[in-house]
């Protein structure tokens, strides 16, 4: 699919863009682990288990279905910092046999459970679970402006937020026969007395378009994230140092060091600088301002309806700031687990009316950490934004439903 690489829209695209997409923080493609077996019921093994969707309720007069996936079993026998623990991947179709039918994904949830798939385990072992669309002849080639910028990432859950439910009336459109992928990872920030086993129980909620009288409002995911300059001069991603005006572009990000894990986290811009989205966090407090206008790459003025956030321990908050209007769009505060290393809770945003965002405005991500551990840690601050997609023509995927 050569079309995957063409990025015709927007002036700010450089060769770095595909990496920006993959970066998105973590775990795009862990190497395939195990046979990815499909078990139906009786005995729950150690490999991923895919359960047929079941009806869990109704929304807008249409049934809501939930598809459940148990990841493989992970062994935790030591401290694993964020994004360095055992991980795996599972590929599947959300509604197998549904062909080209249009689905609306409306939610994504994760629980940490024991190998039996039932007994709850502590949320503190959650690193992240990502749901992405895989390259193939499906959706993200049909609707490039909606999904290509995130490399197909639909949802990310991470420590502090284990469930996403989009506001009523909204969904992320996917085709039933599109291969999707779950990438999941566990972590453990605190001492282990004896090894134990844990897995993710994940579920995807969706509505079939053919059950809807009127389609849902489509949301497009975007990711913006904090960075540190690790090479070159200047801290405004995508803006040449001699073009920077701090009253317009903000103060720019700090100089820092890449944390250096197995995930790609370094992004280059067309002005010869390298930035890291996963940096070393020195002891003490830091407030970092990252210009993200070129990452956000808004195709038009639109509205923001949902924000999920990925932070690491010791985070205080992350916010999206409209530099042009000089106001905070949304701030997500984090609560750390008292006496241990870990995030107890990270706030999210959900709104049907939404908040306006403007193609012509400059935006920055402000991330604030307070590393009280006394030693070096590592950090990230990513905001997954769900924006109203105004240019999707889904009519050819709509079948005559109950209302036409
Ligand atoms: Cu991370």
Fold topology:
Blueprint (H helix, E strand, L loop, with lengths): L16 H7 L25 E11 L2 E9 L3 E3 L10 E7 L8 E12 L12 E8 L5 H4 L1 H4 L5 E6 L4 E3 L4 E6 L3 E8 L9 E13 L8 E9 L2 E4 L14 H4 L16 E3 L5 E3 L2 E3 L2 E8 L1 H4 L5 E10 L3 E8 L4 E10 L6 E4 L2 E9 L5 E9 L5 E3 L1 E8 L16
Parallel strand pairs: 9-12
Antiparallel strand pairs: 1-2, 2-11, 3-11, 4-10, 5-8, 5-9, 5-11, 6-7, 6-10, 12-25, 13-15, 14-15, 16-24, 17-23, 18-22, 18-25, 19-20, 19-23, 20-21
Bound molecules: copper (II) ion.
The site of copper (II) ion has 7 residues, from loops.
Short synopsis of the structure:
The chain has 404 residues and is mainly beta. The protein has helices at 17-23, 139-142, 144-147, 246-249, 293-296, and strands at 49-59, 62-70, 74-76, 87-93, 102-113, 126-133, 153-158, 163-165, 170-175, 179-186, 196-208, 217-225, 228-231, 266-268, 274-276, 279-281, 284-291, 302-311, 315-322, 327-336, 343-346, 349-357, 363-371, 377-379, 381-388. The structure holds copper (II) ion.
